[in-house]
Amino acid sequence: MTRVKKILNDPADIVSEVLDGIVRLAEDDLVRVAGARVLHRRRIPEGKVGLVVGGGAGHEPMYSAFVGEGLADASVSGAVFAAPPPDQILLATEAAHRGRGVLYVYGNYAGDNMNFDVAAELAAERGIETRTVRVADDIATADPAERRGIAGAFYQVKVAGFACATRDGLEDAARLVERCRDNLRSLGVAVRPGSLPETGELTFELGENEIEIGMGVHGERGVERRELMPADELVEEMVRRLLADLPFSRGDEIAVLIDNLGATTWAELMIVNRRMRQLLDEAGIRVRRTDVGAWMTSQEMAGFSLTFLRLDEELAAALDHPVRAPGFAQGGG
User: What single string gives the DSSP state of each residue in 149-165?
Assistant: First the structure.
């Protein structure tokens, strides 16, 4: 059995040590709740709408490294690839609450849905109003109600950070984030599996010359397993599926996110970007911004995902808003 080498201490301490590392990277900006897998901003303005994000660990920098000014106010981590428990979500909710309610943003997975819903009930008992806008950008799942949240989560978190910092109330903030969700589409392809860091075992198997289009970030089956093909042909297939799903139209302006899944090289991603931009030009779709890198990873999984967010004036302003967090900084000094 193939096992992946990892630079670790005790596997039982992985999540705790990752969170401690993020706090140290943030210098004085983040605090970890004692005895919990919860991070929060040290200075959250009174009267702002709170933003809590979270999910299973193992996808870093998503979500914990996106806590900071202009992004999330608090995050909660589960074990690797596992939903956080309700009591920890409640701790994050209390840490983020500044009198105007708290918005939850997290991926559309059964365990996360159940545990965040329980936490929302517990928060209500303590007088904290919450709203939820789940990330559901993965078009590999045909039923929109069951779509998973993958790397497009970064754009949804960024829009949510802007909305919670600038809107008058929780409902108003949630409406803008819902518009982001409704205009967000992603699709990934895996060429090599990731691993479970506690054991080093692979999360799935692919043949030597196989790829899987639509592979999920936990190793969930995609829409099609095929032989490895030239980059241009693969990008053409993925862009075709994405443009048809919303559908996008000539004259649309979009933001594009290219995620490396954890192990794909910059050179490969630039080859992807080259062909993708050619296709979008041909379709008459204008790219306002492109974000390339590690956004939602699956350890050393190789491949990439493409995310398209159709923009309007407000969504574009949200993406342009200055932020500062360990996983991403933009503008504002």
Answer: P-TTHHHHHHHHHHHHH
Residues spanned by CATH 3.30.1180.20 within the chain?
Answer: 184-321
d(CA 153, CA 137): 8
In the beta sheet, which residues pair with residue 202? 195
Please write the tens of the pLDDT for every residue from 143-202. Answer: 888 999 999 999 999 999 999 999 989 999 999 999 999 999 999 999 999 898 888 888
What is the number of residues in the chain?
333
CATH 3.40.50.10440 maps onto the chain at 14-132
Cβ 33 vs Cβ 87: under 8 Å:
no
**From the candidates 40, 59, 97, 321, which is the catalytic residue?**
59
Q: Residue 58, SS3?
A: coil
**Once rounded to an integer, what is the mean pLDDT over residues 75-99?**
97
- Taking a C-beta distance cutoff of 8 angstroms, is the pair 2, 202 a contact? yes
59 is catalytic: yes
- Which of 40, 97, 218, 321 is catalytic? The answer is 218
- Annotation says 97 is catalytic: no
pLDDT in tens, 264-310: 999 999 999 999 999 999 999 999 999 999 999 999 999 999 999 99
CB 145 within 8 A of CB 154: no
CATH of domain 14-132: 3.40.50.10440
Instruction: Look over the chain and give the mean of its residue pLDDT values, rounded to a whole number.
Output: 96
pTM of the model: 0.97
Q: Which of 90, 88, 87, 18 is nearest to 59 (CA)?
A: 18
Q: What is the CATH number of domain 184-321?
A: 3.30.1180.20
